[in-house]
Design goal:
With about 80 residues, the protein is α+β, with helices and mostly antiparallel strands. The chain has one domain: Alpha-Beta Plaits, CATH 3.30.70. A four-stranded antiparallel sheet has the order 2-3-1-4, with no helix packed on it. A hairpin with a 2-residue loop joins strand 2 and strand 3. The longest helix is centred in the C-terminal third of the chain and has 9 residues. It is globular, with a radius of gyration of 13 Å. The two termini are about 20 Å apart.
Length: about 80
C-alpha cells in the first residue's frame, strides 16, 4: 500500500505514460477520477507534475479508507 496518493482526472491517453513513469504501482479508477498509490520516496509525484502539466490534480497521504479498500476490495459504504 502506498503512503501517497495522486488523484487526477482519468485520461486513457495518459495511461501508457503513467505506467512507464510509475511502473508497477496500484492504480484505481473511480468514475472519472484515477488514484495512483506509491511507496516511492516523497516527492515522486511532484516531479512528475513538474514535467506533465495537468489540471484538477491533488496529492495526499493514504488514509484509512484506502487501507480498507486494499484489504477488502470494497468501499466503506459497501461494507
Amino acid at each position: 500500500m502506498g503512503t501517497e496518493v495522486l488523484e487526477m482526472d482519468y485520461d486513457q491517453n495518459l495511461m501508457p505514460i503513467l505506467k512507464e513513469v510509475f511502473g508497477e504501482v496500484r492504480m484505481e479508477r473511480l468514475g472519472d477520477r484515477l488514484q495512483i498509490f506509491t511507496d516511492q520516496p516523497h516527492g515522486v509525484f511532484e516531479g512528475f507534475l513538474k514535467e506533465h502539466k495537468l489540471q484538477n490534480v491533488s496529492i495526499r497521504n493514504a488514509n484509512m479508507e484506502d487501507v480498507f479498500l486494499k484489504l477488502t476490495g470494497r468501499g466503506l459504504r459497501e461494507a
